[in-house]
Amino acid sequence: MSISDFAIPAIFAFVLIFALIKKVDVFTEFVEGVKEGVKTVSEVFPALFALVISVGMFRASGATTFLSNAISPLTDLIGFPKEAIPLAILRPFSGSGATAIADGILADSNPDSFAGRVASVMLGSSETTFYVIAVYFAATKIKQTRHTLPAALSGDVLICVLSAIVVGLLFY
Amino acid sequence: MMKWVFCTLILLSIIFAIISGDVAAVSEAALAESGNAVTLAISLAGVICLWSGVMRIAQKAGVTEFLAAAFRPILSRLFRGINAKGKAMQYIVLNLTANLLGLGNASTPFGIAAMKELEKEEQTGEKASNNMILFVVMNTASLQIIPTTVAALRLKNGSSDPMEILPAVWIVSGVTLTITIIVTVILSKIMGRSKRKS
Q1: Cβ B40–A52 below 8 Å, yes or no?
Q2: Which end of chain B is more exposed for a tag (fewer CB within 10 A), N or C?
Q3: How many helices (H) and strands (E) does chain B have?
Q4: Distance (Å, whole) CA B11 – CA A40
């Protein structure tokens, strides 16, 4: 038994009790939410499909292995698994691409291996940096984003380093 | 942006395939991955439906507003120079709370509204204000209680415990968020100073 076993049941219990007190029609809203979920999936699917195909071809061509081997002397220094390098590169650019490549990494290395865990933690802790910046500033007349990108990217680098360290500390 | 990601991946894979001589593998991948894309979408669909069902209840019950009220004091200390009770602050708090709950559909509209309100309140013109930068940077660092996509991917690929990475995700995203906030604030101060000098 650990905190991760309790997280989901605890959230369900909290939400349901909170909703019952607030007299929310719990079942109807749940079903409505599922409907929204189906819509989300169908909206995401075409882009996800495109990225799964292109990432799959990229991996099959040996390009990821080549890229990982080329960069691994650098990442070995901090104990970062080279299998997760392609995810680190693609993550800021494309959410669907990151999902596709993480799926490939988890299929090749076991999800419960060091590389599988680091890739999982990275994907769970990061966002599609360039997309977020583009969408948020597009809503305004801002042309100069100043230090937004350097600050955001420093966070992405930090996530890679910390994922390897924290997984190492917690699991090994 | 996406057209470049898509074309780079495919064209590079074809070049690599020709160099390594294994063109068949790439051609096979294109077909095999079409099927995998559908499997992947179905795996994700399950978890996404479950989560959006529960979170729809949470939203209707006002959990977002409830948590937002708890975060407001901390956040109004981070975003300086704007009205703590103003519209911009209100949307900032709602956006970040929705992010925490993994409500992608709800958080983006709040975020865009927050940017527009910041623009109005701070009269930014063409240059991003320090508050805007901090807000966008906080959005690029994810803080999510339950990383649903990761859970679905781990389940699909046969993890014996898909949720075991949860504490690690919390630590990594929490520490990253804290440090990037500090970095952003420091950068804002340095940039502000150099501007005054010039």
Answers
A1: yes
A2: C
A3: 8, 0
A4: 30
